[in-house]
Amino acid sequence: MESWLDMALAVTNRVKELRAARAWTQEELAKAVGVSRQSINSIERTRYVPSLELALTFARVFGCSTDAIFHLEGALAVEEERA
Fold this sequence. Notes:
This protein has four helices and two strands. The chain is an alpha+beta fold. The two termini are 14 Å apart.
């Protein structure tokens, strides 16, 4: 059986959606979380996965949990038979 560690996983996010809902520019969000506008662009386009520290900062700035912003996606192998 294939391990879930062998499966392709991706972290997706709602950063652009949450930023747009507040009518913030990428530059405004970048200043709020302490990174460059280019980093925000890369995160929104899922080219860069933020560190745990930055993910927690996004959660604080947006006033929601990290789970409400970031999602782990991919086919996870689930053990169907357990002894």
